[in-house]
Amino acid sequence: MFAFLSLILLAHAISPASSQEKNIYLLAGQSNMSGRGGVTNGTWDGFVPPECGPNPSVLRLAANLTWVPAAEPLHKDIDVNVTTGVGPGMSFANALLDYDPGLGVVGLVPCAIGGTKISQWVRGSFLYDQLVRRADAAARGGGKIQAMLWYQGESDTVDEEDAESYKGRLEKFFEDLRSDLQSPSLPIIQVAIASPQGPFIEKVREAQLRLDLANVKCVDAKGLELGPDHLHLTTSAEVQLGKMLAGSFHQTRPRPLKNNAPSSYSLRGGKRKERTKAMFTFLSLILLAQAISPASSHGKNIFLLAGQSNMSGRGGMTNGTWDGVVPPECGPNPSILRLAANLTWVPAAEPLHRDIDVNVTVGVGPGMSFANSVLANDSSLGVVGLVPCAVGGTRGTKISQWVRGSFLYDQLVRRAGAAARGGGKIQAMLWYQGESDTVDEEDAESYKGRLEKFFEDLRSDLQSPSLSIIQVAIASAQGSFIEKVREAQLRLDLANVKCVDAKGLELEPDHLHLTTLAEVQLGEMLAVAHAQLVIPASPHPNSIFLLAGQSNMSGRGGVTMNNTWDGFVPPECRPNRNILRLTAALAWVPATEPLHKDLNAYATAGVGPGMSFANSVLARDSRLGVVGLVPCAVGGTAIGQWVRGSFLYGQLVRRVSAAVQGGGKIKGMLWYQGESDTGLQLEPDYVHLTTQAEVQLGKMLADSFLHTEPV
């Protein structure tokens, strides 16, 4: 009775929405879009997860072309020859509204029919005509078609001819639909199938993953949970797919570079944050596409991305499925383009290697973080063109597979040539490879010579003898000879070749691939290395001090109970031209409070003892020269988290190594960890030192250093 009354109340609440402007989404394809979640032996279990629950702002276009409150199963009156269950539609719609509560009314238009081939969706067929008819009816009712969600292909895996023809038929279907809907830029989010009905699944998946049409994105269902029939997604998998589709659609909508990651987490903030309201409508997306198009004919600053899986990107990957999270540092930017597999320039978006490294599911790599960092450092740079060329895989790619004349080498040269012919100059190659060469001792021993020869041949064939190359010293290995390969990378001594060290960056659970956060950090490190190759070096410190431990070294002075810093910087902590700070991206910059602002990512940093210490030692001994502070403290950490081999220990060692490159001597480490009673004044939380106490502590540390360590 309660459910019945609820439905009536919901209908009354929603009725006015049917006359409002709607954000319309077409749902088309076959059974996994129609929905078989919870269906067993032709019976639906009736379970509707919370993510798929009714919402007053979500409507459904019924079979009779009227708008009604949306509820599972969405396709109950469309895919009528079978029992339908939960599909991805409601999860998608609710996730969209989570991203942007001010979006308004979402109108879903179910059109999927189970067991259908792509050939049954051609222009003039019943399914195609029904799709166009329902789309037109939806738009006439008031609203705009924002996108089509498409999940189909299982039926095309049975016959080899169907599988071979799939890519061409799919492209033609998308092009015809856009034409007949008079929406040439209609966003389409397709799903790469997770399960086959026949043996030719990889041919169909390759066609889906390699499809490269403007404003067509692909999410990969591989790895999502299947029902007992090994064909249809379970209810939980359909919920997850809906969220993936929402995340993918959200990425097509323009937003400021530094916007928060949607409804997930900020990688720098480490916890969930409210997403800011969407600033643009679908019309803005069209305008953005028009704004970007001319960029493809402008002179570009071109960067080649080559190597294996950690350059291709596995950030956010678990069991062959990408979580879809794109951190703000990797967000789209109108000034960043990507050379697609078909050698055309398109707006760049994660995953960058989706149509290049096609035998696996790719995730976040360092490329977008690098490009955004380069532009942040020099806004006058213009258009950045990224040329993805990295190929990973189950066994990865060895350096011997990149020799002149190999497929990978020829593809790299061909894509580089095509990029430059389109207008622009190749500025550098970013190279991250070597994990696969750690398995065999002979490969590891030969690595340095092969790498040098590869770099020399590439420069010669690109007719760029001074091409900047930034290589990455590997962080992980597939074999036991990692140190031999790392030594070769770190000792390589060719002009205009720099090396950044990935050791200490966070790894995924497979202990081989970098996490999303680590890929962001690596991109920023690569940007700093590039700047060092093209920009005169900034001053380097003479006397270096490490700041390590937990929150009172990181600094919480002035941070209130609601986790906001009051912004007060006492005179003892003022900037000084002789005090530098090593950033998270391993660049020396003028030091200012809070020193740990880009290191202690999981809390708001405030005043710590570092600046007071540095100003105090310089006031009493100018022979120290330029002081360099290396923030490494992380709040809430136990001493057991600082043992050799841990992430914190590895990060500390990596930052120390970076700090001494280019000169300077480590004079000491300041360590505050364990939270023993200091007798100093505490903040109201009775844990953290106040700003004045941090100033006093800095002076105490300076006294201790000057009395115990001769300069």
UniProtKB/TrEMBL annotation:
UniProt keyword list: Hydrolase, Signal
Domain (Sialate O-acetylesterase) ranges: 22-249, 300-530, 542-678
Signal peptide: 1-19
Organism: Rhododendron griersonianum
Pfam families assigned: SASA
InterPro entries listed in its UniProt record: Carb_Esterase_6, SASA, SGNH_hydro_sf
Domain of life, source organism: Eukaryota
Source lineage: Eukaryota, Viridiplantae, Streptophyta, Embryophyta, Tracheophyta
Protein name: Sialate O-acetylesterase domain-containing protein
Region (Disordered): 250-270
Molecular function GO terms recorded: hydrolase activity
